[in-house]
Write a structure and sequence with these properties.
Blueprint lengths: L13 E2 L2 E2 L2 H11 L38 H13 L1
């Protein structure tokens, strides 16, 4: 049961005889949104760093910079590539 420490259960707040799943539905909807909203299929979008319109030309931002919290994944990929 849910008291056995099994992490596959989610506790939901109850409102009388109803379960409040508002937050879970909201989280699911947010995850369904595209990361980049484009006006047409071949649109290059805006630079996520400086906001420059990439359809008008490249900006001076470097694309290699990633969130430092995700750096571990770059190291793991590098190690896998070196082992092959």
């Amino acid at each position: 049961g849910p008291d056995s420490g099994d992490e596959s259960y989610i506790q939901l707040p109850t409102l009388g005889s109803f379960l409040d799943i508002t937050q879970q539905v909201w989280d699911s909807l947010i995850l369904l949104l595209p990361q980049t909203v484009l006006c047409k299929e071949d649109c290059l979008g805006l630079c996520p760093r400086c906001g420059a319109n990439l359809n008008c030309g490249k900006c001076d931002c470097t694309r290699e910079e990633i969130d430092p919290r995700l750096e571990i994944f770059r190291k793991i990929k590098k190690n896998i590539d070196e082992d092959q």
